[in-house]
Design goal:
By secondary structure, the chain is of the alpha/beta class. It has 22 helices and 24 strands.
């Protein structure tokens, strides 16, 4: 699993000035099983990165009014991430960037909130926060206080997509003798209660001559507060030096006025055996169970609390010992929780009952009632072959054959009987993935029943019918797949998904190209001596073996014109002009007896659409012609397939390659190799499974 961790652009992932978010990321990386596949992105001018797996994004427009720094940062990140195959993108503290990432990157997205969500752009309103729940795959809060702020003013108080993962720490490996010193760590400002600390220390030091006070931190807009001569300001220290200093200090004070989202310093101080004093603000009480919580946040109360600890040596030592022993948030444990949460986004990515291999129920028309005359164009059959060759187990169900066979026995409630058959098969087999294609015989209620039986079940559908504009039955084809949308996880079609944006949300619609299979596309025509020049076969529907009277197909006129222009060539065309369609072995006998093949599909030439004939033509080694407007140049080069722009352009190119056998054979051979290398049954079936389980697969990018 590959993970990209995105820091806020102002976050310095450096030893010199690491913030709380950087420390979080660095710490949890230490024990993650994904340490070698997790890349951290950020923007800093420093070079002393906290870990090796860091990539720096340079931002130029920090002072520019033309574009916000966050927007520039987001754009540069997206351009960089598009080149990678990350399974998960983890966004820290930047809900405003979610929309851009969801629109542009096909990865699971985890959003981390380290501060009050209602104070951040993109999450300020209750509706924005509800929308975030819909857009991302997981939201992590660093404390229950932060979580409560997220759900504030909504009608929710929890959601299955949310988790709390606290800042965590390793126990100190060394216990050293403590010095009589009181320490404050944090920004030296009133929000952190630094003024309260200074005033309390001033009141204490003269009464406790053996004790010293230290403050660690800085503040850009520093305001001077009177300090005792034994109160020493050490300024900013690297994080490891801070931990060492806490380890040898007796008392730590975190008197924040600010609603701390968590309060990492309190956790660190307690884990290093400090008697820790905290205010009751924000998430501070969640850091440790051993801290002393101030009843009132003022310097007098703080002074009295510190003096009691100094005077009561036994109590102070007991608090220190219990603090070190009872660390509330351990790094190793919470790192394991984060990894579990990541893998849970991919139900079958790492754990499966059969060594990462799936049980797949493949439902499609096997064509038994057609005596298997359509086996050579059966996409469902090629899927099954690919699934099995990739190590999965498959059960096939032919819905149309079940209905036909049982209709002879009982003409009533046949479809209900089929639902029962599906349900009982499901109970016995308990598949991990159900995939079905062109089936209107499955009730949506049955799909719901499947999910009730297996909450981790994944369901995908596929459809090879054309869905372009201007074709009479396009809307019918779209409605067929739309009917199942609320009940399935993914849809696979042979038209570019962007063409359906007006009708459907395309987030989980994926393109696929008809696969080739060496068991089916088993000929190498370029090695043969065909008698005919160009081949084309058209049908009036796979369920019809003959021509349908009165049916008009716009391709007929194109083919008739083509034949007229190529009257000196042997055009072997079927399925129109009173020439019956051909199937099965007759189809192959005709196909391999032609040098070249025309890939002409129904409807207007449309981006990425082709009927399944393209696999038959290219897979069997015919030089193949296809309309340039299909954009198949994104898959094949000019030396692998021939693109034409018009009827006359096609005529010229057919004539040219008919006279140039060397070029014809070279292109046909190279095109066949490209098709089998990239779009064979194993690769396409792997793509189907990967997309179904939520794993990245950029086969068609």
């Amino acid at each position: 699993m590959r993970i990209a961790t995105i820091l806020p652009y102002k976050e310095n992932y450096s030893s010199r000035e690491a913030g709380a978010v950087s420390l979080w990321v660095k710490d949890f990386l230490k024990y993650s099983k994904f340490i070698d596949s997790n890349i951290i992105y950020g923007s800093t001018s420093y070079k002393d990165y906290l870990s090796k797996n860091y990539k720096n994004i340079k931002i130029k427009s920090i002072n520019s009014k033309l574009i916000s720094s966050t927007k520039e940062y987001s754009n540069k990140l997206i351009n960089s991430l598009k080149k990678e195959n990350f399974d998960i993108i983890e966004l820290h503290n930047r809900p405003i960037m979610v929309d851009d990432f969801v629109k542009n990157i096909e990865s699971k997205i985890i959003l981390y909130f380290h501060n009050d969500p209602s104070s951040m752009k993109g999450a300020k309103t209750a509706q924005e926060r509800i929308d975030l729940l819909k857009k991302v795959d997981k939201i992590i809060f660093i404390s229950n206080w932060v979580k409560n702020k997220f759900f504030e003013n909504t009608n929710l108080n929890n959601h299955s997509k949310t988790e709390i993962i606290y800042h965590s720490i390793d126990p100190s490996q060394k216990v050293i003798k403590k010095s009589k010193q009181i320490v404050f760590v944090g920004k030296l400002n009133e929000a952190k209660g630094y003024d309260i600390f200074c005033d309390a220390i001033n009141r204490i030091m003269d009464k406790t001559p053996k004790w010293k006070a230290f403050s660690i931190g800085d503040e850009k807009r520093f305001k001077y507060y009177p300090k005792h001569k034994r109160h020493i300001n050490l300024g900013y220290l690297p994080h490891n030096k801070v931990l060492d200093f806490l380890n040898k200090s007796e008392i730590a004070v975190i008197p924040s006025r600010w609603e701390e989202p968590f309060g990492r310093t309190a956790l660190e101080a307690s884990s290093r055996g400090c008697a820790t004093i905290i205010s009751n603000r924000g998430g501070l009480p969640e850091t440790t169970n051993e801290a002393i919580i101030l009843r009132k946040l003022d310097s007098i109360t703080l002074k009295n609390t510190i003096l009691k600890l100094i005077k009561d040596n036994k109590r102070r030592k007991m608090i220190q010992r219990k603090s070190r022993l009872n660390i509330k948030h351990l790094l190793k444990q919470n790192s394991f929780k984060i990894d579990q949460m990541r893998t849970a986004l991919f139900p079958f990515f790492y754990s499966n009952t059969n060594n990462n291999k799936l049980r797949i129920l493949n439902i499609y028309n096997l064509g038994q009632k057609l005596n298997h005359r359509i086996y050579h164009i059966s996409i469902g059959k090629k899927f099954t072959n690919g699934f099995i060759r990739n190590g999965h187990d498959v059960i096939e169900i032919s819905d149309r054959d079940f209905i036909r066979q049982n209709r002879n026995l009982n003409i009533f409630n046949i479809k209900d009987k089929f639902q029962k058959y599906l349900l009982e098969t499901f109970k016995n087999y308990n598949p991990d993935l159900i995939i079905f294609g062109h089936s209107q015989n499955i009730d949506t209620e049955t799909l719901s029943n499947f999910r009730n039986l297996n909450k981790n079940l994944l369901i995908s559908q596929w459809n090879e019918d054309p869905m372009m504009n201007g074709l009479a039955d396009s809307m019918y084809n779209i409605e067929k797949i739309k009917n199942f949308f609320p009940y399935i996880d993914h849809t696979f079609i042979t038209t570019h998904p962007n063409l359906l944006k007006k009708h459907l949300s395309t987030n989980n619609i994926h393109y696929f190209l008809t696969p080739v299979d060496r068991n089916i596309e088993c000929f190498d025509v370029y090695n043969l001596n065909p008698k005919n020049d160009i081949f084309y076969a058209m049908s009036h529907g796979v369920n019809r073996a003959t021509l349908k009277k009165g049916k008009i197909d716009q391709r007929s006129n194109f083919l008739k014109s083509l034949k007229k222009h190529l009257k000196n060539l042997n055009c072997d065309f079927y399925g129109f002009d009173n020439i019956e369609p051909i199937w099965g072995s007759l189809y192959f006998n005709a196909l391999i007896n032609s040098k070249m093949g025309l890939n002409l599909s129904r409807g207007k030439p449309t981006k990425y659409y082709s009927s399944n004939r393209i696999a038959s033509l290219m897979g069997n080694g015919l030089l193949t012609f296809i309309d340039k407007k299909t954009n198949f140049n994104n898959f094949f080069n000019n030396d692998e397939i021939v693109f034409y722009e018009s009827l006359l352009d096609l005529v010229d190119k057919v004539r040219f390659y008919n006279k140039n056998d060397y070029l014809r054979i070279k292109i046909a051979k190279k095109g066949q190799k490209k098709y089998f290398d990239n779009f064979n049954e194993s690769e396409i079936s792997k793509y189907i499974v990967d997309k179904s389980i939520g794993k990245l697969n950029n086969l068609f990018q």
